Amino acid sequence: MDNKLDFSAVRELLETELEKGSFPGAALSVVSKNEVLYRTHLGSAQLQPEQRKMKSDTIFGLASLTKVIVTTSSIMKLVEMGRINIYDYIKEYFPELPADKDEITIFHLLTHSSGYQAIVKLWDQGMNYQQKIKYILDLPLENEVGELVNYSDPNFILLGELVQRVSGMSLQEFSQQYFFSPLGMDNTSYKPLTNLEAAADDIAAAEYCSWRNKMIVGEVHDENAYSLGEISGHAGLFSNNKDLSKFVMMLLNNGSYQDQTVFSPLTIVSMRQNWTADLNQNRALGWDLRNNFRSSGGILFSDQAYGHTGFTGTSIWIDPVLELGVVFLTNRVHPTRDNVDIISLRPRLHNLIAAVLK
């Protein structure tokens, strides 16, 4: 791919959106299989109570990108290791599961077709961790198992717990051993103030939390993940532009990055295919697909493209046909979550990046 591509229009769009107030700050990487084609950052990592500039290595709370970077990857690694099958009934791993949910499989959780509701409120329940897992397992299903796709945090909270029960390791330990260390992702972790020994000044701010009574910096933004000890399958991971570029390049190279092989190529190909073509939405295993209605990846990427977003203003998109990956990180929830301009920006940004390739 031509490394003299002109991304000036991409920078101009980001500057326009920054001035408009779509986000306080952002970091962007566009990568091919073997090189970084474009990388930039702009704006502020924090506006209140003091202002800090965005840096090239600023760490972001990734929100639901945790679902794919940690949880989906961990499930697929356990599949490769022969420890689980995606068609296993989850009752094999959750003996406390009520009998009316016997038909739910790992596949249903991965593709958001289990029937569980989109959101559950755990943070004010006054329960310990395992009681919260049981509370989720006991939730009434909103739909029949396998009937339709309904994006759901509870699905991935359960998958995260399943990884821990099968592996005997925490999500932090498992992902560190099998993904972050091999890929040299040295700024990627849950609980970065502890595990990375990062300073608050290294991390983009989220919003002011009234019940924590502080501006969130270096703690997981998601309330449920916070109540689960900040390590969960649906949210909680922190990383930066450079580290996520390595992860995306690994996916573009079908499981390998430089001299490290993280996955079999067959695993990546299987993971990214459309597994719910007969349902109401197209989903890969864990990942979203470009050909969904109003995709955040726009319309110019190929129909093989896959990606995911995070509530805090983060996203990743990978196109194996164009051999292109995009990491787009913002702190759009700072100082409040009310600004949702990122929703309309994402597809426009990805269309513009695709058009640069000509």
TrEMBL record:
Q: Ranges for the Beta-lactamase-related domain?
A: 11-340
* Statement: the UniProt record of this protein carries the keyword Hydrolase: yes
InterPro entries per record: Beta-lactam-related, Beta-lactam/transpept-like, Diverse_Enzym_Activities
> Keywords of this protein's UniProt record, alphabetized?
Hydrolase
According to the UniProt entry, its GO molecular function terms are: hydrolase activity
The residues forming a coiled coil are none
Q: Name one Pfam family in it.
A: Beta-lactamase
Q: What is this protein called?
A: CubicO group peptidase (Beta-lactamase class C family)
ATP-binding: present as a keyword of the record?
A: no
